[in-house]
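User: tokens in, sequence out, please.
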């Protein structure tokens, strides 16, 4: 497979949320769930914003104490793992957005290569009783921390 340039969340099969610097993803089609923390959660936020991988690499380098080469290797690896698990799909580079600038003048955070934790132990249970559509279409569809409109009305 060629190197990926742009990916976006697979909104048909994936529910995802970033909470306290941890990305939690559920593939509702397979019942597997996944997690990435710190750098991985940051990368997921950029993917969720449909930024091209090149811009994500630049954002990682701006925010963390890492070389561009290492960041590129890690972002490509994570994107490929997410793609292979059907958590993301390739997107058109023309539709991609730019990553938000980050770390302007701030001290860079320590860098730890991101890893995708894969948990298949609940797959059977989630297949029998999948997450509520409200989770998929509502609060879990956005990783920016905003509460979905239907949740606000019930609060």
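Assistant: Sequence out:
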């Amino acid at each position: 497979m060629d190197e990926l340039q742009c990916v976006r969340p697979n909104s048909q099969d994936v529910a995802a949320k970033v909470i306290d610097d941890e990305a939690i993803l559920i593939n509702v089609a397979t019942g597997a769930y996944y997690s990435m923390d710190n750098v991985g959660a940051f990368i997921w936020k950029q993917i969720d914003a449909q930024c091209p991988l090149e811009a994500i690499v630049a954002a990682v380098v701006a925010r963390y104490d890492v070389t561009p080469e290492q960041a590129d290797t890690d972002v490509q690896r994570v994107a490929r793992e997410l793609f292979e698990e059907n958590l993301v799909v390739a997107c058109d580079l023309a539709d991609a957005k730019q990553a938000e600038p980050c770390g302007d003048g701030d001290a860079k955070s320590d860098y730890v290569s991101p890893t995708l934790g894969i948990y298949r132990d609940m797959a059977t249970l989630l297949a029998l009783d999948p997450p509520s559509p409200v989770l998929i279409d509502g609060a879990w569809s956005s990783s920016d921390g905003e509460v979905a409109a239907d949740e606000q009305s019930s609060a």
